[in-house]
Amino acid sequence: SSHKWSQTETDWGFTQFMMLSELVEPGRGLIVNDTVKIKVEITVQRDERYYYDSRNETGYVGLKNQGATCYMNSLLQYLYHLPYFRKAVYHMPTNENDEPASSLPLALQSLFYKLQYSRTAVSTKDLTKSFGWSTMDAFMQHDVQELNRVLCEKLEDKMKGTRVERVINELFEGHTSNFIECVDVDYKSSRRESFMDLQLDVKGCPNIYDSFDRYTQVEMMDGENQYKAEGYGLQDARKGVLFDQLPPVLQLQLKRFEYDFARDTMVKINDRYEFFDELDLDRGDGKYLSPQADRSVRNLYKLHSVLVHSGGVHGGHYYAYIRPDGKTWLKFDDTAVTIEDGSKALEEQFGGEDEPGVSPTGRLQGAGQEGDQQQQQAAAAPAPKQRLKFTKFSNAYMLVYVRLSDWPRYMSTVTKDGIAPYLLERLEVGGGTRCSVLGGCCGCLCAGERLLQHTTTRAWLLCAAACCDL
What 3-state DSSP class applies to 342? Predict the structure, then answer.
């Protein structure tokens, strides 16, 4: 048997070894001279999970889960690993009397600073308090896309009139051209719209290019659905959408959750959906681009982040695969940060089914004559042991691509020189420098720089009590 000791489970053992009737049974020979000898071997092993130092192993730390905030953690890790975004956050103005729990800019600045310099996983409590969330909100999963939009809108509002105004638009904003073009008369109407992310269909789309094909698919307006053109009356027309301008950072929301009208309920789409390390949106002679689009811009993108949902429509777990340097994939799963193979971030997050070849009913997958011949041969032969296919409930729901030509500009390293001086001083003095007392063994962020002057045990205990979120 084995047991993992913890603060809440300090006493543990067996309440019963064997039945008394079995113990005294003469044939067993357990009792000799009215004596029973019991031999116990105990092996104490260290649980390596509790000694894993993600900062040493990967260079990064994770975020603590408040109960059901894994979805927020994965989003925050992705945003943090956009250095241009992080640098803009560091330059948002705050007031001297602001507190992180009541100021969204300061809470996010403090959070990002701790992610960059803390030795251990970082708490998000100040940030959620700045949202106005209660403890109950932290135990409820919110919509990730909505959280991303609301967060960016609030930050964008706080950035107005500052040196980082429009940074969010610069990173994420693109433009589409919605057009209606009459077939039989010379009339065309178009409307330019902006977007910060794109929602792509998963159902019925084997891969990401099929989703873009569907997104830009032309719809015919004829019959009872004719278009009323000004000066021409009802006309047959073509309706569609093309891209005027694509953003440097392309946020793609995969429509894994949809409303099933037949079942009158929300369902999760776990269909296999392939996406790629690189995404070329100039393919097909620029078929996704409008005539007004700047063709001198090369719209070749590199995959930066894969946000994953594991579970069903009513709940589950969220985590993210991110490669900050464009080479090494890292898995950010709340407090755990590990280096992973690229297949974990891509192929294993396509969804679909685990076991190819044989369906749960035993019918071989195949079409046409060849498939029928295989079925007949299988029926004539002794029935093999059938392999079951299992639906993968863990799959990508959000993809982030960065344009290759823009990678050097937006993905360059952020150092302390990239932090506003007044903010750097505040973070280091009031909650942003790593505790160095006793060698920094508490791995936390001090609540007071003045404690660093002391080296006594009492001073260290005060520091730990003031800042550790255990």
Answer: helix
Question: Which strands sit side by side in the sheet containing 188-195, from one edge to the other?
Answer: 188-195, 174-182, 237-245, 219-221
Q: Which residues contact 470 (CB under 8 A, 6 or more apart)?
A: none
| Residue 147, H or E segment | helix 144-159
Distance CA 29, CA 209 (A): 74
- Per the rule left: phi > 0, alpha: psi between -120 and 50, beta: everything else, 392 is beta
User: Other C-beta atoms within 10 Å of 101: how many?
Assistant: 13
pLDDT tens digits, one per residue of 190-223? 999 999 999 999 999 999 999 999 999 999 999 9
pLDDT digits (tens, 9 = 90+) for 350-409: 999 875 544 333 333 333 334 444 444 544 555 555 566 777 889 999 999 999 999 999
Whether the per-residue pLDDT at 437 is higher than 60: the answer is no
For a pLDDT cut of 90, what percent of the chain falls above it? 61
* Cα–Cα separations (whole angstroms), residue 467 to 65, 151, 439: 18, 26, 16
Give the residue numbers annotated as catalytic, written as ranges: 70, 317
247: left (phi over 0), alpha (psi -120 to 50) or beta: beta
Q: How many helices (H) and strands (E) does the chain have?
A: 16, 16
